[in-house]
Amino acid sequence: MAWLSVTGLAVTGGILGCGVVEIPDGVVYPLRSNPLINLEKAPATAPPAFPPPGKPEVSLRWLADQGVAILNPADLDSHEWGKAWRDEVNTFLIGQFGTPAKPRVGNEGSAAAAIGKLSTSLNLAPAVLERGSKQYRRLCLHCHGLGGEGAGATSGWLNPLPRDFRQGEFKFISTAEHKLETGNQPLKARPRRVDILRTLHQGLDGTSMPSFALLAEEDIQALASYTLHLSIRGEVEYWALYYALRQDTETIKAIEKDPKKEAQARTARFLAGALEWEDPEADVEDFVAKTKDKLLTAGMEKLLDRLLREYAAADKNPIQPMADPYGDAPTTSQSLANGLKIFQVQCVNCHAGYGRQSALRFDNWGGVVRPANLTTPVYKGGRRPVDLYYRIFRGIPPCGMPKANLQDGDPARQAWDLVRFLLAIPYPETLPPEIRQQIHGGAKQ
Ligand code: HEC
Ligand code: HEC
């Protein structure tokens, strides 16, 4: 745990105004040790409360009580092959992502040509990451933690918790959904670079995530790149550990057939996941035969390549908002009535009482989140009409908020009716009397 005290000192230096936060070369990102969860479908029962301050792990216990699998990396110790698996993951991560003092994405080795090219187009060059890493230790580490685990020294007191970047999931994105040309699997919701930049410039209103707008633009850019570095590193680690630990029926069957070959069976499942995203017909056995050894490493390389391509694709694939049919005209009562109607069908389930009485939900990190109270004009992802348009169009996937269903009739009108309605909810005086009555009772302010 030597790195803990070292970073502690370094951060103090930064806070006291030394400006630059150096970190010794020997400090490495710790391999993930906290539990992994993967919420494929929403748990049946809502969480009873927010976890108490300093005890975020309580919500994992609530999930475990509902039968959700909580995978603990420490369980690797109980397997003969566990240490070798962990070592292979660690060696790969250090090789491809470096250390906090010398961060990078990709290396000069084998499949790196394509990876190197992608990481340049994503602005992940080592010099940029090194600058980002220094700023991160000064400004972000106390909340988001050294490896982006969201558990920095300040985090225990915050609600919502600082983000754990290591699942590669982001809430406030403006990327259009799209499918791969080669396969049939839609790309995961990755943020565009401008989404991360927006978060850094504006902060997330209503949370402790501050605005960093006063930094030099070059530092903000470097911080965005470093956030990607931590997210991509963390996600490779996440899936490599997930497949070592998960207990799905197919893996259990393969292990029962030949218990001595558990590591091989698990590696094959991991490879299938890494290969089939692009080509649903991918021949895993053929890949295994050609690769011979270091299969897990080959799988992680594929996964890294995939993640870089997904982030690059997100940048090229923004949501293009449909033209607002009302243009600059003031919002009409009819538009608000239309918005209210859609809201009552698609949104009140979660945003009960327009969000005043929302029931809590589990999010994809195993934490607890409350569907926003829409009667106060505070939006984490920004308050411009287009920000609300993005939320409606993309949903907030890691929180289970679906995109709105705007299939019937005139989608552009429906989308902008909903945006106009959302923008008006907090201001009773702007609402026609019958809608005001419905949302605010008699109150005019
Ligand atoms: C005081 C604590 C705090 C500090 C300091 C902080 N953050 Fe955050 N950050 C948060 C919280 C809390 C959230 C999550 C809010 C939520 O999920 O509702 C967050 C979320 C984020 C997100 C995710 C946005 C999304 O779309 O999901 C990014 C990116 C981010 N922070 C980057 C940074 C960077 C980079 C720094 C340093 C320059 C930083 N943060 C400093 C608390 C902090
Ligand atoms: C399955 C539950 C669910 C449904 C259905 C749902 N939401 Fe949400 N919504 C959430 C959750 C959870 C959050 C809070 C996310 C957070 O704070 O991290 C949220 C947040 C929001 C926000 C705040 C965004 C921000 O930037 O802070 C808006 C606006 C919103 N929802 C609008 C809608 C609209 C409009 C609909 C219907 C078309 C809808 N929601 C349907 C769960 C839901």
Can you tell me about this structure?
The protein is mostly helical and 445 residues long. The protein has 2 domains: 22-318, Cytochrome Bc1 Complex, Chain D, domain 2, CATH 1.10.760.10; 333-440, Cytochrome Bc1 Complex, Chain D, domain 2 (Orthogonal Bundle). The chain is 47% helix and 1% strand. A two-stranded antiparallel sheet has the order 1-2. β1 and β2 form a beta hairpin. α3 (82-97) runs antiparallel to α8. The longest helix has 29 residues, at 217-245. 38% of the residues are buried. Residues 136, 139-140, 143-144, 154, 158, 160, 162-163, 170-172, 196, 199-200, 204, 207-210, 212, 223, 227, 380 line the site of one heme C.
In terms of topology, how is this protein built?
Elements: H1 2-18, H2 58-65, H3 82-97, H4 112-121, H5 126-139, H6 141-144, H7 193-202, H8 217-245, H9 249-257, H10 262-276, H11 284-291, H12 295-315, H13 333-346, E1 361-362, E2 368-369, H14 385-394, H15 411-424, H16 433-440
Helix pairs in contact: 3-8, 4-12, 5-8, 7-8, 8-10, 8-12, 10-12, 13-15, 14-15
Bound molecules: heme C (2 copies).
